[in-house]
Amino acid sequence: MKGLFTSELERLWSQKISWIILFFIPLMSIGSVKYYLSWNERVSPGQPDYVTSLNFPIISISEHLVVSFNIIAIILISTVIANEIENGQLRMILIRPFSTTQLFLAKLATILTTMFLYLTLFWILNTVAGYIFFPKVDTLITFLDEQKLSLTAALLYNLKYFFACFVTMISVVSVFTLLGSISRSTMITLGAGVGFIFLAIAIPQLLEFSDTNYYWTQYSGSPYVHVYCENSAHGNSIFTFIN
Q: What is the rounded radius of gyration, in angstroms, for the C-alpha atoms of the chain?
């Protein structure tokens, strides 16, 4: 199984698209820096959405997680699974002494490993950029309850948020991988993936404005990191690993 995973990882990184995406990650970070430098001109210091050296990685990844990284995931899945099925390459791979389940798990692990690499690189670049371009502070103000965290607590908060983002990425990649396996077509996989992203953005907005007995609690701008809190105005006790 280890050899199969290594082989699939080498196959993925032998394709130009993987390196193009890797080159695109720093450009995403540069775009975030430019945007939030102008954003700070309109926001008063001390507000939760005022961008500092400590919260820039969180704010930046929350903006890119839903669209940018999901599009990257769709592209990888279309390349690793749907395209191989469509072109018949998968039949040659199945000649090797591995079951279909083992092959599927190896491809899923390959995609998740690559996405983890992209997320980690993006996080590191934003952490460095935060300390270079944004005001250096010793405390972080949380988004939900506006608590002030010390430097050590803020670093732990950042790590928890990164972990939460990757957990949501695992769920989304699993769904996209299933779509790619069922559709057997690159175009259908891309279309279904884009449709899924649209619904992930639209449904929380619709529920927020719907007349229900629930409060839709949003954490730091990511539509994937939500919970329902029945008869409660606060969700931090339910989702304590973020806030």
A: 20
Return d(Cα 158, Cα 165) in angstroms, integer. 11
> What is the structure's pLDDT at 226?
41
Per-residue CA distances from 39 to 34, 35, 137 (Å):
9, 6, 17
Tokens standing for residue 14: 């032998």
Query: Is residue 15 pLDDT above 80, yes or no?
Result: yes
Residue 217 has φ and ψ, to the nearest 5°, of -100, 120
**DSSP structural state of residue 146:** -
Q: How many CA atoms lie within 13 A of 6 on its CB side?
A: 3
Q: Are 57 and 123 in contact (CB under 8 A)?
A: yes
- Could you identify the residue written with the tokens 């995406």? 21
This prediction has a pTM of 0.76
What are the φ/ψ torsions at residue 199 (nearest 5 degrees)? -65, -40
Q: Flag whether pLDDT at 72 surpasses 80.
A: yes
| pLDDT for the residue 82 | 63
| E strand or H helix that includes residue 230 | strand 226-230
- In a 10 Å sphere around its CB, with 0-12 CB exposed, 13-18 middle and 19+ buried, how is residue 150 labelled? exposed
Rounded Cα–Cα distance for residues 102 and 131 (Å) = 43
Q: Is the dihedral of CA 130, 18, 74, 242 positive or negative?
A: negative
> Residue 169 contacts by C-beta under 8 Å, 6 or more apart in sequence?
65, 69, 73, 112, 115, 116, 119
**Residues 130-147 pLDDT 10s:** 999 999 988 888 777 778
